[in-house]
Design goal:
Length: 202
């Protein structure tokens, strides 16, 4: 499990993946993994609408298959989307050929060059293969909102501690994260706005 900020050697190991954008700009990139699902994604979209913030949603292909109208709503509201595999698979447990096939299956429903490996599991061989077709997107700050031992207040403190110019920040529009993300997200946006950050899509 990664800590809130990636271990120092990982960006060096996968240098062309996006971990953080330009440090010279006071901009953050909010991203959401694992949706879309009707129990959480509409509420996340409503919060983003409330603050006029656009984000990037890394969607699981099978969830897009189950909820195509909700996926279309994400796009129609002006957010970007990315590929999070079809079955939310673990890169350490799959061979490269089968993993790429799972990503390709998701790409039939998700028109995007962006791909984020679930759980952050990425091997050098998988990274090399994915990079031939996609832009691999990792993160500079993961909120760990899926951790049920965390409180929304702790998640906000983590953002306050670790966010910096160009941070790619990960939340989740998933059932595991529901309690935390719906409470921590608006407070996070308020804090970042007070600090003068702008929000952009990947």
């Amino acid at each position: 499990m990664f800590i809130e900020r990636p271990l120092f050697f990982l960006p060096w190991l996968f240098p062309f993946a996006w971990w953080r954008k330009k440090a010279s700009q006071k901009v953050v990139y909010l991203t959401f993994d694992d949706g879309p699902i009707p129990e959480v994604t509409p509420d996340v979209l409503a919060i983003l609408d409330q603050f006029g913030v656009k984000a990037t949603f890394f969607c699981v292909g099978d969830n897009v298959r189950k909820h195509p109208e909700l996926f279309q709503e994400v796009i129609e509201k002006g957010h970007h989307v990315g590929n999070h595999t079809f079955n939310h698979i673990k890169g350490f447990s799959w061979n490269v050929r089968d993993y790429l096939a799972n990503v390709a299956e998701a790409s039939l429903l998700i028109d995007s060059r962006l791909v984020r490996p679930p759980h952050g599991q990425l091997t050098p061989a998988l990274y090399k293969a994915l990079s031939k077709q996609y832009q691999v997107v990792m993160w500079d700050l993961i909120t760990r909102d899926y951790n049920r031992d965390f409180t929304p207040e702790r998640i906000l403190r983590n953002v306050q501690k670790y966010v910096r110019n160009g941070s790619i920040v990960v939340f989740h529009d998933s059932l595991k994260a529901k309690r935390n993300v719906l409470k921590a997200l608006p407070e996070t946006i308020r804090f970042l706005q007070q600090q003068g950050y702008q929000f952009k899509k990947l």
